[in-house]
Design brief:
single chain; about 350 residues; mainly alpha; two-stranded parallel sheet; about 5% strand; globular
């Protein structure tokens, strides 16, 4: 790997997860028993959506300070959890069939203010298949984005504050991605209808509550460190995926188990810790994070940790961009012999 000062870290090696998946399935075939959806996740989706709607109703005639305070201390955690559960629907880990998962994603999206679930599913699956490929992985920042934000505290704080804006722009550079389809339009119509209903029925405080909850949940908040935790180069060596094993996994549906998730994206959130328990030798020597709050402040103040602190590659596993796409990692888990 080489690391120019004004560029990402370039790697000629394939992404690390496919090989580790093969090795783990060979050495621990019992991991296959963990693969599959968890329908009870929909109960969590329904409960958290109901909670956010109830709070939006309660703050309809309250002070703006209370609206903002509740959004930061309660709404951010609720909406962050819903975003994680949308992630579950993207991998068909709530129900077996596509349609029920799409509907579950639309329901989970309701308190998130912006229509997100359909677009997320499209670019997130590309992220798994082509980790670090600039033209196919929307988790990689734009080069102009990294230059714009730079190394300063102010730049990085602003980036976290409006992170959803940057995240919404990144899929536009992705190749082989259909940006508009019937589900995209459905997501937009349903979300606009819900937002308008909040505004017309309960007033601006209710709508602003869910909007602020959304921005805080993935932005200028310790929870926003999750976006840094996953793939930013915060450890030694060439490791490019990092897990988080802190207490907030309990309210974030184990989303911190990111190495485990990339190794086995068809294992639902409730069983991710079991992967590490079954095969500790695969993860005990990997760098991990134990505090999102500590990482949040490190990212803001460490001038060496910037948006350029990411690994990019020109090909994935020997498949160049002009070649046929390899099977998805989830299919690999079903087909690799043990």
């Amino acid at each position: 790997m080489t690391a120019p000062k004004r560029d990402f870290v370039h790697s000629d090696a394939p992404e690390p997860h496919r090989a580790r998946t093969k090795a783990l399935l060979r050495d621990h075939p019992e991991i296959r028993d963990l693969i599959g959806p968890n329908p009870t996740t929909f109960l969590w989706i329904s409960g958290i959506v109901a909670l956010q709607i109830a709070i939006a109703f309660l703050v309809r005639d309250r002070s703006w300070w209370l609206v903002a305070g509740l959004a930061y201390t309660v709404g951010a955690f609720a909406n962050h959890a819903l975003f994680v559960l949308i992630h579950e629907t993207a991998h068909r880990l709530v129900f077996k069939r596509k349609l029920p998962n799409m509907i579950a994603g639309l329901v989970a999206n309701l308190p998130l203010f912006f229509p997100s679930t359909v677009a997320f599913k499209k670019y997130h699956l590309k992220h798994h298949a082509f980790q670090g490929v600039y033209e196919l992985d929307a988790d990689i920042p734009y080069r102009w984005e990294a230059r714009l934000i730079g190394r300063s505290f102010i730049g990085k704080a602003l980036w976290l504050l409006i992170f959803p804006v940057f995240q919404a722009l990144r899929p536009l550079r992705l190749k082989e991605l259909e940006h508009i389809d019937a589900w995209t339009i459905t997501n937009l119509v349903v979300q606009v209808g819900f937002d308008l209903a909040l505004l017309l029925l309960w007033g601006p405080q209710a709508l602003v509550y869910v909007m602020l909850s959304f921005f805080f949940s993935i932005g200028l908040h310790p929870l926003g460190a999750r976006w840094v935790q996953r793939h930013y180069l915060t450890g030694n060596g060439g490791q490019e995926t990092f897990s988080y094993y802190g207490a907030l996994n309990r309210v974030a549906f184990n989303v911190g188990y990111h190495n485990e998730h990339h190794d086995f994206p068809s294992v639902a959130w409730n069983k991710l810790p079991q992967i590490k328990a079954i095969a500790p030798e695969a993860y005990e020597n990997l760098h991990y994070h134990s505090s999102w709050t500590r990482l949040f402040f490190r990212f803001l103040f460490d001038k060496e940790l910037t948006l350029y602190s990411r690994v990019i590659r020109d090909e994935r596993g020997g498949v160049k961009l002009s070649d046929e796409v390899k099977p998805d990692v989830e299919e690999l888990q079903k087909t690799v012999p043990v």
